[in-house]
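User: Can you predict the 3D structure of DNA primase? Sequence below.
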Amino acid sequence: MNFSFVLEVEIEGFVVVGRATANKKMRLSEQGTESKATPMEMDGRMATAKFDETGRVHDLMPLYYGRLFPTNDMYRWLAYGHDKKHPQADQEFFQRREFCFTLEGDIFCRYQSFKDGAELLAALRDKVPEKIDLGPIYNVDPKRRAAYSSLGGDRVFAPVERELVFDVDMTDYDDVRTCCSGADICGKCWPLMTVAIQVIDRGLREDFGYRNLLWVYSGRRGVHCWVCDSRARKMSNEARTAVAEYFSVYRGGEKAEKRVATTHDLHPSLNTAFEVLEKHFLEHILPKQELLENSEQIGKILEMFPDADLRATLEEKLQKNLEKKESGRNFQDSVELWQELERAVGRKKNRALFKALKDVVFVYTYPRLDVEVSKHMNHLLKAPFCVHPKTGRVCVPMDPAKADQFDPADVPTVAQLLNELDEHEANYGKENAVKGEEASNTSMGKYMEMFRSAFLDGLMSDVKLEFAQSAKVANKIADATKPLDW
Ligand SMILES: [Zn+2]
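Assistant: Sure. Here are the predicted structure tokens for DNA primase:
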């Protein structure tokens, strides 16, 4: 596909369509506030729950953008304080951010930009994207990139800052999952994401000193982390790569034991991570994945122990236990078997075997990052509060301190939210809804609260502090350069 060609055409189309379809816009915004004109209702399927979970997610998106998408909060975040009449504020900051809309039919509209939240909202209602990606802040408004570059000289359209981002996807754990594979997730494998959040969150805060971290459920099978400290946003691609590599314990290779790059003396950060990993391994991963009650996993785990005698003894024991389980007789579960394995290693008193025990824990629990996403400033990443076009689930923010309480099955779908909105209006009347805050009357409310309390409030106070500091510096410079009047 000629990617850039599609983009250019779409960008032109966007400007023209945006001006030429005032009527269409009106219709959409009416739908946005008036929930009477939905296709489902016209089908005559109107019941107490008007919006059908099995219907097409895209049909609900005009209403979602019109009534629920938190444009104000998104704008507050992405403007980083440059939204007020502050002497230090860069009024074009938000407008230099690239938004990429994916329209129905996989049509990419890259290099979209907006003056403020209101303009973003108008575009969302007009274009009804299936997905919104966020790109970097460029040196000029991305819409003006061609005109800028054509001026020649050293004028090159280029990204200048962007959040440091991390992407953890459950599909990368397929070789250590016994419950599902591919895009599927369940309560047995989700703890792997909990571990990833806890390990990466701790590392970013304690080892790198970052403070403003936004964690988001990707809507289906993974999580994203946005590091929003200004120090992280201004990092070069090389520095981003170094941070991503810091969190990459795996070094490729076919077999699990070859992919773990730990040494006898673990880096202090890996030692700290190990405490979290081991706890989750024993409490969740081993019992839920039943790792030592699965032929394939038994083979992989035993291969990691460099002692043929130990392997042979354990292999026999574990296979016998498996036969018992399969024939419905009394058997030992994976946690008991792991304790036996530890005892067997203890009797051997061999350092390499002790290391193998740790390696198993690392291989089966350590976060697996898609490092390519983190390495480049101009990599696009799906925006929080998008709706997954297949599952209909909202990409809600997560509180890393409560990661172990997060259940993806609880995440509301767009149909559920719209039904809740209607129900709330039926019970309390429309006049009770505060414009722009309608989400607070639905199950999205608690996620909005958390977005603010676990992320946005802290970010805003840091931003305020930075503005105050730069104002102080500016004043000092002004004082120092003031002509002396004696
Ligand atoms: Zn699963």
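The CA atoms of residues 268 and 274 lie 10 Å apart. The first strand starts at residue 97 and ends at 103.
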